[in-house]
Amino acid sequence: MNHIVTVQDAVTAFADFMEPTDAELDAIEQEMPVILADVDLLDAQIVTLDRTPTELDERRIRRARRRALAARVALVNRTAGTSMPGGAA
Q1: What tens digit of pLDDT does each residue of 65-86 get?
Q2: Fewest CB atoms less than 10 Å from the CB: which of 2, 45, 72, 83?
Q3: Nearest to 27 by CA among 83, 86, 73, 79
């Protein structure tokens, strides 16, 4: 007979004390425009997976890619003045 044994880390991985900190939530909020732009880009790419992209699809992907890059640039420009913990760059 095989006994089922749980792994302690897996059981306690979602305990109340493991909630994200305010700093982590702020970082997620700051990165949200990049996340949403990446989702839009993925949506545009997923539409073309099962067919040949039309001119409209290609324009949609190009626009989504530009928005994603612009969101990343804006995030880098906002966070350029902040330093990383431990002196990392």
Answers
A1: 999 999 999 999 998 876 656 6
A2: 2
A3: 79
